[in-house]
């Protein structure tokens, strides 16, 4: 029986498996001695004339000469492991293989890619969930630094300092780039006061640890203080930079100008002082510095005219506040003499009284020469004597004092008006950008001549005008009451094949003077396929409230209800003001038919408030919330909102 089994196996020519080699090694030599020669399988080397001995085929199937015995328990364990491996889910096996190839540097590259696409939340999830929790990798300093930088650019100050504290707990030493990113987070934070407090705490911590700051980190700190409007702290940082031997550059004065803009009362005067100091230091301004100066002319006042005259027209020759020019003698124990020059500069910037020039001298000079008026009916006469304060060397010597410049166009006249400002930029080798021209459109006197001059400057500089530029011109003309000028600018915008947007209609809403014009504006928006927003209704409500047109207000509230436009806080304040009685009106002593209409509007307004959901101001960090958290919040809000019944408002 054994001989039949072996002969059958050899005739079929089947290759013996490695796990049956033990049996073959024992029984084949026995069969050869007992039965003699064994027939060879057909189709082998024997047909090709080659003599093959018994057992020569074993080397063709396995190169091993010896075999180890394995027990049944080992065989069962091997097959059991294979079954467990096959039973594992595909995502678990891929994650296991993926884990072996990932490194902290790989996560650094992935986070950089996500941050370039403005996907900060996904980069944080990748680092905190997949890298730290799932794969349990030990992060490096650069992993934290790149995420702190992303939080800094977004102003996510809370998360940036959380990552900073986690990095210190892991024993990682922060680099200069990490400190720069933290100061940037403080600067970009929507809450300026909170950002300033965090920046000052971090600054004290670095002082306590004796960690020096480089020029880039100093500028990031200076940016934080400038956005908060802390001018004294900016001078302290400037003093530290000079003490450590760091150069004062164009970027330094850029942040000083930003700090001046935060002072709405006298920021224009402060910005001009910084401008003069920058020129005296031999630093050439750039386009950004010109844009910030235009913002100061648009948003800030000049302060005390006598103090402005003393500091801008006379103080520049007496102060000697030049970082590279005249220097005072250093005091004992102070090595860098530049700090004393900063003291002089700071004293003139933070001056509150005209101490250098007495009021008696000022008034005696005013009796001899008339002061420069802020506004005059004859603009041509004013332009002949107005000094261009952008270039102190061109100031007229016969100008004694400056009057209070109330309007932005008056402050623009002090820096050369439209033509003088553009000529000064051209002398510095700069061309106006679309942002510069838009700011000029916001500060120039609204007239057709100004519009032509701005368009001509754009054509000469090769600047392509956009919708925002024309919207600014429309808004300026509408505020000045120039209805025809606003319509002409809109027609000019359509000639350039520019499409109107919601901001265009919001600017045109300021032109509407009657109920009919307001409804026509809403109809035009529907024709263009746009839905009016709260800003458009706010402009229309403001026009109706100024004229006490309660029928117009009633219609606007109905339109907001039908279009489901939620009112914001500005609209609510306007309606509250319109619903109040005038201070001098007493409905019990006198009767006014015109003002009696307010009673009907007050009743309708209270009913309207019950059914109209107010527009919630989005949180500044709303975009960094996790998707599941947003879904939960949306569900809660939708359940709390009550549906509006149209039949109740008729």
Give the topology.
Blueprint: H1 2-12, H2 21-35, H3 58-61, H4 72-87, H5 90-101, H6 104-116, H7 120-134, H8 141-154, H9 157-169, H10 176-188, H11 192-208, H12 215-228, H13 231-243, H14 250-261, H15 267-280, H16 287-299, H17 305-319, H18 338-349, H19 359-368, H20 379-385, H21 408-414, H22 417-427, H23 434-443, H24 448-461, H25 467-479, H26 483-495, H27 502-509, H28 515-527, H29 534-546, H30 550-563, H31 569-578, H32 597-611, H33 627-640
Helix pairs in contact: 6-7, 6-8, 7-8, 8-9, 8-10, 9-10, 10-11, 10-12, 11-12, 12-13, 12-14, 13-18, 14-15, 14-16, 15-16, 15-17, 16-21, 16-23, 23-24, 23-25, 25-26, 25-27, 27-29, 29-30, 29-31, 30-32
Look at the structure and give the mean pLDDT.
75
- Counting DSSP E segments of at least 2 residues, the number of strands comes to 0
End-to-end distance, in Å?
Answer: 107 Å
Largest sheet: none
The helicity comes to: 55-70%
Percentage beta strand: under 5%
Shape, please? globular
The low-confidence runs, each spanning 5 or more residues with pLDDT under 50, are 13-23, 37-50, 70-99, 316-340, 354-385, 624-650
Output the number of helix runs: 33
Q: Structural class, judged by helices and strands? A: mainly alpha
- Radius of gyration equals 40 Å
Number of domains: 5
Organism: Silurus asotus (Amur catfish)
Region (Disordered): 61-97, 318-338, 356-378, 619-650
Domain PROP1-like PPR: 139-303
Biased composition (Polar residues): 61-74
């Amino acid at each position: 029986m054994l001989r039949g089994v072996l002969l059958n196996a050899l005739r079929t020519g089947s290759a013996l498996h490695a796990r049956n080699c033990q049996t073959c090694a024992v029984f084949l030599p026995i069969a050869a001695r007992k039965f003699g020669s064994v027939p060879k399988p057909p189709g082998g080397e024997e047909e090709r004339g080659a003599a093959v001995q018994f057992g020569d085929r074993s080397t063709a199937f396995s190169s091993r000469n010896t075999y180890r015995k394995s027990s049944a328990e080992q065989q069962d364990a091997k097959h059991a492991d294979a079954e467990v491996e096959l039973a594992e889910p595909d995502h678990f096996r891929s994650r296991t293989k993926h884990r072996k190839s990932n490194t902290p540097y790989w996560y650094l590259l992935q986070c950089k890619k996500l941050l370039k696409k403005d996907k900060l939340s996904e980069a944080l999830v990748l680092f905190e969930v997949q890298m730290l929790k799932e794969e349990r990798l030990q992060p490096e300093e650069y992993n934290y630094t790149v995420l702190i930088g992303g939080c800094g650019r977004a102003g996510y100050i809370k998360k940036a300092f959380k990552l900073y504290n986690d990095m210190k707990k892991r024993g990682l030493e922060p680099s200069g780039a990490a400190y720069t990113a933290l100061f940037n987070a403080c600067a970009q934070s929507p809450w300026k006061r909170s950002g300033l407090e965090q920046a000052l705490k971090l600054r004290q911590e670095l002082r306590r640890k004796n960690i020096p700051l480089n020029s880039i980190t100093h500028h990031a700190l200076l940016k934080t203080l400038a956005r908060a409007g802390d001018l004294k702290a900016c001078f302290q940082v400037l003093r530290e930079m000079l003490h450590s031997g760091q150069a004062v550059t164009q970027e330094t004065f850029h942040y000083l100008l930003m700090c001046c803009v935060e002072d709405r009362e006298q920021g224009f005067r402060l910005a001009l002082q910084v401008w003069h100091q920058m020129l005296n230091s031999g630093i050439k301004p750039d386009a950004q510095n010109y844009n910030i100066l235009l913002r100061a002319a648009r948003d800030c006042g000049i302060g005390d005219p006598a103090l402005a005259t003393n500091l801008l027209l006379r103080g520049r020759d007496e102060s000697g506040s030049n970082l590279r020019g005249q220097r005072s003698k250093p005091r004992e124990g102070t090595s860098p003499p530049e700090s004393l020059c900063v003291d002089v500069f700071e004293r003139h910037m933070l001056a509150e009284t005209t101490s250098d020039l007495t009021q008696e001298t000022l008034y005696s000079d005013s009796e001899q020469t008339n002061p420069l008026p802020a506004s005059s009916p004859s603009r041509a006469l004013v332009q002949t004597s107005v000094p261009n304060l952008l270039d102190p060397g061109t100031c007229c010597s016969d100008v004694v004092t400056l009057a209070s410049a109330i309007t932005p166009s008056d402050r623009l006249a002090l820096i050369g008006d439209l033509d003088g400002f553009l000529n000064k930029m051209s002398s510095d080798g700069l061309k106006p950008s679309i942002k510069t021209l838009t700011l000029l459109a916001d500060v120039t006197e609204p007239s057709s001549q100004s519009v032509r001059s701005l368009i001509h400057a754009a054509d000469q500089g090769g600047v392509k005008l956009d919708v925002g530029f024309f919207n600014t011109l429309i808004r300026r003309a509408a505020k000045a009451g120039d209805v025809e000028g606003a319509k002409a600018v809109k027609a000019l915008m359509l000639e350039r094949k520019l499409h109107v947007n919601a901001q265009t209609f919001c600017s045109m809403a300021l032109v509407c003077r009657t109920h009919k014009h307001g409804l026509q504006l809403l109809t035009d928006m529907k024709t263009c396929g746009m839905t009016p927003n709260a800003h458009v209704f706010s402009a229309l409500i403001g026009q109706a409230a100024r004229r006490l047109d309660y029928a117009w207000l009633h219609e606007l509230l109905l339109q907001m209800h039908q279009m489901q436009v939620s009112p914001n806080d500005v609209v609510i304040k306007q309606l509250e003001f319109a619903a109040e009685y005038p201070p001098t009106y007493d409905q019990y002593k006198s009767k006014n038919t015109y003002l009696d209409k307010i009673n009907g509007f007050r009743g309708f307004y209270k009913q309207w408030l019950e059914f109209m959901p107010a527009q919630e101001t989005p949180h500044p960090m709303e975009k960094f919330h996790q998707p599941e958290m947003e879904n939960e919040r949306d569900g809660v809000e939708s359940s709390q909102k009550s549906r509006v019944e149209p039949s109740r408002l008729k």
